[in-house]
Inverse folding.
């Protein structure tokens, strides 16, 4: 593999995944990953452009930022690209009224959206909210529509909490897709539209940007398909087999965000 | 379409699906579908061979037969081919110790199976048992195995109860397949092995047998792929769009089991 200098040449902006890169969720909100608080601070001081790009769909953007601040990170809501606000734009643009299969923590993101007489389903990481009753209700709403529309906030397979790996929204989206014989529209990583809007907000071209994430498919593969470079951290949901993934090869694998920032500060050109 | 006489020529045995053909499940166990109790009785008197072939995986075979008897049907456990006993055979033959993601009503079927230190997951129609916690536990068991083995009792998309359409095991199997990046082994319809063992117990060759079911894919498509003929009833989970299914065309569509039996008694040759 080429030297880091070549691999990181010309990088001017960085998109940072949040869960599994900055912190691991769990009891009491979660814990920062060792070195990540300082790494974010160093990156922001470096002159490189920085933006956060998350598929977090259990909490509102506000709650997520509040949590991260409690954990010691410095960031504001305006620096975060998240799927729920993007989904609200899409719903309004297409006159869609969603039935929401989402975590209670996310509902506030949709308070300006008409949810009466639903003509689509929005599914997000509902965690304990993925009861049989809630899943079946969403299924029944879809089956009663002439053209069922299912909008999924991300399609992650699983994420990591202190208690272990947890099923993510993608698994439940697959269940509804199969039951209804339909394909969901994904809002969030790895959707190219989502990466492109994050890049636009970051303010650099794809070839000047690097994504740092713990998800080999959603973060690394998705960013690379948009012309970005991508590093995978060996924290969060990372598994050793990711380094031999049959379809996706990261531009580099690093122990954690702190190592990624070390390398960027050494080799990128802010 | 050819006349019924041609379509049913040479039929000597009948496989009957149960849920959606004999009865609809729901509060208090369910209700017989109009005309089905008499239709089963007439069929059994006719000289045609008859066997029941179900993907029921919420109840044990014993409980299912008890329920059907309460609803007025005459049948015994020995006349029913069901996936749980077939799964137990497979588990024993391969030395597999399952983690069971099944309805409490089905557990008795596995009482002779070693479930300590699991090296596979068996998933069945758990209904309310498909909580996030139970799904996540099964997911974690699979992810800890070097070679994850997932055995699914059927792969139905949904079934019909009095309260409406209900998500079936297939949807939840898809969720685990996606999350783990694996493919489940199906025991039950439409697995060819399952149909073949039902045919063997029925005692006629595939070309002399007809399957009657409400599931265009699981019953009709599955039976046809084994060389049988298959009729779809317009009861249970039947939906009008089934008659224009892109891949499966039944040998005939009938209002209900009573009409199917009328036609069989008129045109088949017992």
């Amino acid at each position: 593999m080429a030297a880091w200098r070549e691999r990181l040449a010309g990088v001017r902006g960085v998109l940072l995944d949040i869960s599994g890169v900055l912190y691991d969720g769990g009891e009491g909100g979660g814990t920062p990953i060792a070195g990540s608080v300082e790494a974010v601070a160093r990156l922001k001081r470096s002159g490189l452009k920085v933006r956060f790009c998350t598929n977090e769909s259990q909490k509102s953007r506000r709650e997520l930022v509040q949590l991260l601040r409690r954990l010691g990170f410095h960031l504001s809501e305006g620096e975060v690209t998240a799927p729920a606000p993007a989904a609200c734009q899409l719903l309004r643009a297409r006159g869609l009224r969603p039935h929401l299969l989402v975590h209670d923590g996310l509902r506030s993101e949709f308070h300006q959206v008409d949810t009466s007489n639903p003509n689509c389903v929005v599914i997000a990481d509902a965690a304990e909210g993925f009861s049989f009753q809630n899943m079946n209700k969403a299924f029944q709403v879809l089956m009663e529509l002439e053209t069922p529309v299912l909008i999924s906030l991300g399609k992650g397979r699983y994420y990591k909490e202190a208690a272990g790996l947890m099923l993510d929204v993608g698994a439940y989206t697959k269940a509804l897709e199969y039951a209804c014989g339909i394909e969901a529209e994904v809002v969030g990583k790895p959707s190219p539209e989502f990466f492109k809007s994050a890049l636009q907000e970051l303010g650099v071209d794809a070839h000047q940007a690097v994504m740092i994430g713990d998800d080999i498919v959603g973060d690394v593969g998705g960013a690379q398909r948009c012309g970005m470079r991508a590093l995978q951290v060996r924290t969060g949901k990372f598994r050793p087999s990711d380094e031999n993934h049959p379809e996706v090869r990261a531009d580099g694998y690093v122990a954690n965000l702190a190592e990624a920032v070390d390398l960027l500060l050494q080799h990128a050109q802010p």
About this structure: Residues 132-144 of chain A form the longest helix (13 residues). Chain A has a mean pLDDT of 96.
